[in-house]
Amino acid sequence: MKNEALLHTDFDNLQLFKRGKVRDIYDLGEYYLIVSTDRISAFDVIMNEGIPNKGKVLNLISAFWFDFTRDIVDNHKITINTDEYPEECRQYKDVLNGRSMLVKKAELIPLECIVRGYITGSGWSDYKKTGKICGIELPAGLVESEKLPEPIFTPSTKAEIGLHDENITEDEAVNIVGKEAFEFMKNTSLKLYKKAAEYALSKGIIIADTKVEFGYYDGKIILIDELLTPDSSRFWPLENYEKGKTQNSFDKQYVRNYLLSINFAQKPPAPPLPEDVILNTSKKYLEALNRLTGITHVP
């Protein structure tokens, strides 16, 4: 299998609005067009190689969850059907098919809304030092990857590319977005996580934690960005789960493990990725898509 990945998009007659770590956003006037590329970042560094089909997987999983959770909160998805896109997009249909989404133009709320259902990652590091996660007191004696008594909400700042998000307290989050908006985002994030985690578990996937984002549209707060993907969440295979250790996952595990094995300095420039790391990562993303949605191949 050859590594054929879409790293960048460049559409002559579309106005590029923003280029993120993975997604390129185009301003179509009335709408935004979000294109999910195959770029991959690890330790906040964008790799030189892409992961084949990764962007399509992220886009299709997000589309699935946006529809699945619409009873909880409205979101920015309009359609992923390229036949329904504005006329100026039609000539790029072959590139856009499967990896793009036409969305409402919402105003970003600058807060990362993180829900943790299991103790892992930076939360585990925090707990070992303080007995808390982001200032939230937890029971003594928890072990790595253990399920928390109840999911917790731990907001963070939204950093620019190349910088790290910083965990903040609820009071600090209120200062950023206001009390009413904060309470809505917190309660909604927890509802989203609980519904999605229960469904995913029935498909053999543990959602250990996730990050969601919101924006203002027509005076209301709606869901934006991506939703419950392997890039914005930790997905663990249920069949291999065992608390007390680091878990296998459906995301960048192969990439992270390789970078750690070569003592990567976690800053640019990125080292070249071996072909087996790239292809094994691609397979993991596709497996997550298949388990959650039943989709067996991407467009």
From TrEMBL:
A single GO molecular function term of this UniProt record: ATP binding
Record InterPro entries: SAICAR_synt/ADE2_N (IPR028923), SAICAR_synth (IPR001636), SAICAR_synthetase_CS (IPR018236)
GO BP term, example: 'de novo' IMP biosynthetic process
Domain of life: Bacteria
PROSITE patterns to which the protein is assigned, alphabetical: SAICAR_SYNTHETASE_1 (PS01057)
UniProt-listed Enzyme Commission number(s): 6.3.2.6
Keywords linked to the UniProt accession: ATP-binding, Ligase, Nucleotide-binding, Purine biosynthesis
Protein name, as recorded: Phosphoribosylaminoimidazole-succinocarboxamide synthase
Organism of derivation: Melioribacter roseus (strain DSM 23840 / JCM 17771 / VKM B-2668 / P3M-2)
Lineage, broadest ranks: Bacteria, Pseudomonadati, Ignavibacteriota, Ignavibacteria, Ignavibacteriales
Designated gene of the protein: purC
